[in-house]
Write a structure and sequence with these properties.
heterodimer, A: alpha/beta, Rossmann fold, seven-stranded mixed β-sheet, 10 helices, 14 strands, about 20% strand, B: alpha+beta, Dna Ligase, domain 1, D-amino Acid Aminotransferase, Chain A, domain 1, six-stranded antiparallel β-sheet
Chain lengths: ~290, ~400
Amino acid sequence: MGILVDQDTRVIFQGLTGATATRMAERAIASGTRVVGGVTPGKGGSRHLSLPVFDSVAEAVAETRPDATGVFVPPAQAAAAMIEAIEAEIPLVVCVTERVPVLDMVRVKQALAGAKTRIIGPNSYGIITPEACRIGVMPDRPHKPGRIGIASRSATLAYEAVAQTTRVRLGQSTSLGIGGDPVHGLDFVDCLDLFLADPKTAGIVLIGEIGGRAEQDAAAFLEDRRPKKPVVAYVAGMNAPPERRMGHAGTVDLLGQGEAIDKIRALEKAGVIVVESANLIGHAMRQALDGAS
Amino acid sequence: MNLHEHQAKSLLRDFGLPIPQGGVATTPEEASALAQVLGGQGWAVKAQIHAGRRKQAGGVRFADSREAVVEAARELLGRPLVTGQTGREGLLVKSVYVETAAEIEQEIYLAALVDRAAGCLTLIASPTGGEKVEAGLAAGEGLVRLSPDAGMAPRDADFAAMASALGLSGDTAEAAAGVLAAVWKAFLELDASLIELNPLAITKSGALAVLDVKMVLDDNALFRHPELEALRDEDEVDPQEREAHRFEMNYVRLDGDIGLMVTGAGLCLATIDMIKRRGGEPANFMDVRPVASGAQIAEGLRILLRSPRVRVILVNAMGGGILRCDTLAEGVAEAYRTAARKLPIVFRGAGTAKELGEMTLRNQGVPAAVFDDLGEAVDEALRLAKTGAA
């Protein structure tokens, strides 16, 4: 169980023969993920990690019928790789690539319109349903199968939440990184919707940060739904240096680039338990679940 | 990558934007010569630094004689200019831009940027530009956007509708629609992340003139534009930030005494939040990218060890699937062993290879205070910053 990926999910890796992809595919296989093949243009017909390698996503789809693909290609090729996967109608695309040009992601979003594919990332640590399926660059330790759904913009803060929810013996149903880039695929609202519908998930952790409106959108969604499952959130950047806060905001904060305090207020108003420090996430979730039962 | 005004104007002129004639001067004499070549009765002399709010800070001068141009250039050049966007020390003015002054009837604000929620490029404008723009927009006055229905393929009619929504008509509206289309095209072709014209002036004769430009290019897309890389002005970046960048770190200098090295930007922000909440002051933001090697991490730590204001270093190492705690510890140990100045180090390890990381520090003789819990590690760093001794 968990969301989007489980022990039955068939996975390919785009860029499988690269160094990081190879290590992460090995780790995925070792922890039970059903990796069925890979794509590296020019290396079609060969085998890597005992898996068949294809020249194109279309060929890989025809031969291996994947449910998901992990995109582990350099930034210059990332958009084309994602679009190839969208056109081949793979249901889930997980892109870990960092430093993808923002206009390339705009083009990917255009290609996504009307398609059935969901995209996680880019600049995401990936997605993991512990001991069932992992597509990404996260550590195996300290994940444990369990009841908490985690969605995060930041990788290492998510690992922090994973370690804490493991320590308080709750474990994780699924943890996924929505990615740190301004334009990306799945958002907090999509994750909340999926976690609320997942019977295995008893509580949800959201980890946000300054910039954008993803946290405010999540708050609006929760205000509307008022779920019974507790939602614990942490928003990083209350004291962010101005250079980090401003980013490319220009003279004027035109589109509401998002201060931490506004996000925290919106989430609290929607009934979310917002912790003031990142080390309190697991404890807050434990308390919320104990109080609720 | 931030561009100087004169660089942005030179790029945008090629897209047909109405940009007054001008040039760059590094001495008062050059400024005077430029004014003569440009001709006319009035000139603007503008400090070239990577920061806005120059006008309010006296960084933009108007001159009605060549003597006044020389005087303005002499006052601006070779001195730091402090604006609302530079920080206390300001930025050194190495050059001025001298351009023909325009007689302004109205000032329009125009920006092109990516709407992250919609995943789409957009244009935003206000009929109240110039210095008044922030007040105007805060009051919600007259903000005009390109129709979201245009998506990524706006037509001439969409640009014309936007010009008309700005309250323009006739030839001025037609020229403004042309400016909108040109800005859109330039953004896409140059892989910008921001193009801001403020003001886009309407002159007394009804013509348009781009008086100031702020332009930022997408660093992640520079591989497509090797020719634009030459526009980078390294002097505008803090030397330590520049150095850290070479070693796969994102670094921002702060004013406190607790040096920070953290795996990941979000976790680093979270660590700063914890320090501030407990009454401490971080000396920096430092996010180690997962691809950093042990040798690069050592160089990053040396930046902290060399900073006179740093009294203690907190290393918050969350080992991931790529960057492991032991790699980080190797780098820390290498820098510490060879450092002239030893500082107390607090090491908080978690995740991949945590124990190996801690063992590396022990075996290599780094007397670090080691913690599992982030809260306890932050408390110890605060205590050491206060007492200055381990």
